[in-house]
Design brief:
globular, about 30% helix, single chain, alpha+beta
Length: about 140
């Protein structure tokens, strides 16, 4: 099978996360950015952490589906809630994350295994060298 590639191209302008804008080359993404209220901003627009959380949650959900299919596990309901936290410690910034995997139709052990398997294949999980916790909850 031939390799398939996709490259997303997004340009940030203006003041970046402080009132700037991020727009994709295809015109499908065009957002204003704002510093979160928790960091002294007005919080009136999205921020890079929300955008990262949206991408990661979506990608991780797909990775869970692939992992479940490979193990021949049928899922009834599935959601991923990504919490991306921006930390500011002594003049330094860093990120951490919690990925909440919410699913039904499996037992807790299988849910934990699916979360771990998805984390191994999810491109976001592989790309980000940050502390991450995977929490699977069976409904």
């Amino acid at each position: 099978m031939a390799e398939t590639n996709y490259t997303a191209v997004v340009t940030a302008t203006g003041e970046g996360r402080n009132g700037g804008r991020a727009a994709s080359s295809d015109g499908l993404l065009d957002v204003t950015l704002a510093i979160p209220k928790e960091f002294g901003g007005n919080g009136a627009a999205t921020n890079p952490e929300q955008l990262l959380a949206a991408g990661w949650a979506s990608c991780f959900l797909g990775a869970v589906k692939i992992t479940a299919a490979q193990r021949k596990v049928t899922l009834q309901d599935l959601a991923v809630v990504a919490e991306v936290t921006l930390h500011h410690d002594a003049g330094d910034y860093h990120l951490s994350a919690v990925l909440h995997l919410e699913l039904s139709g499996v037992d807790q052990s299988t849910a934990d295994e699916l979360g771990a398997g998805a984390h191994r294949i999810c491109p976001y999980s592989k790309a980000l060298d940050i502390p991450v916790t995977i929490e699977a909850t069976v409904a």
